[in-house]
Amino acid sequence: MAVPRFDLNQLVALWHVVEARSFTQAAERAGMTHAALLQQIESLTRACGSPLVIEHGRAVEPTPLGQELARIGQRLRSEGEHAAKAAEDYLAGVGGRLTVGASLTAGALLAPHALAQLRHTHPALNISLQIGFSSDIIQAVVNELADLGIIEVPVQHPELTVSPFYRDVLRCVCSAQHPLAGQTVSVSALKNEPLIQREQGSGMREAIDTALRQAGLAFEHTIEIGSAEGIRAAVGVGLGITWVSALSQLDKKGLAVINVTDLAIERTISIIRRRGADPTPAMRAFMGALEHAALDIGENP
Q: Are 150 and 102 in contact (CB under 8 A)?
C-alpha cells in the first residue's frame, strides 16, 4: 500500500477547518482565500484516499482520520510559531546559543559583568563560558569549539580576527600587614621578597616575567601556585608578593598595594573570533556587553 504524500501546510489548513467548523472562518484565520483553502483540503483528501471532513449544513465536522490529522496540524502550527520566534530572537541577538572561551583573568573578572548585563537584556540567550589558559582559548576558537575568545596575550593568527578592548594594569600587592603595604618604592626594593607566581602558560605569568626581564630584575625566591585564589590567599598570609589585575578587589582579600615607581606592567585583553565569518547577533550582543563592562570597570585602550 502506497504511503500518502502531502504538503504539511495542508495539515495546518485542516486544523483551521476543524477548529473553526467552517470553511469560510477557517480561510479567514489561515489568511487565505476560500478557494485556496478548499483546494488544500481536497488535495489532502485525495492523498489520504479517505474523507477528512463531512459537511452538515453550514457546519463542518471531522472524520476520525480528519480529527487525528488535525491534531498533527495543530502541533505543526505550534512548532512553526516556535521556529519563527526562535529565528526572530536569533536575528535580534536575544536568543540562540553562544560559546565563549575566556582566559583566567578575563573569565573570572570581566566576563561575569557582561553576562550579568546580557541576563537582563537578552534573557533567552544561552551562553556557555569556558575558562582556561589563553593558548587553550585560541585553539578552541581556531577549531570552532568556541564562537568567541577573550585572551590576555598578544596573538597573530591567519584564521583569527583580534579586537583589543581593554588595557589591564597589573598592581604589585602584598599582605595588608606587610611593612611595604601602601609604600612607594623602586622595583629594586622588592628583589629580596618571595615572588608568588602562576604556572607557566598563564597570561599573567607571561606579562610579569616579560616586564621583570626587561627591568633586569630576578627574584631569588619564587613560589608557583596553580590558581589566582591560591596566590591571593598565600600573599594575604604573608608568604610573599605578587602582581594582580587592577580589576581585583583587594580590600576583600586582605591585600594592599605597593606603589612601584619604575616598573609598569600592562597587558591588552582582546576579543578573538574566526576570520572571514560575520559575527552573529548573539556574538555582537556579547561583544557589546563586554565592551560596556570594560568601560564601567576601567579604561579602554
A: yes
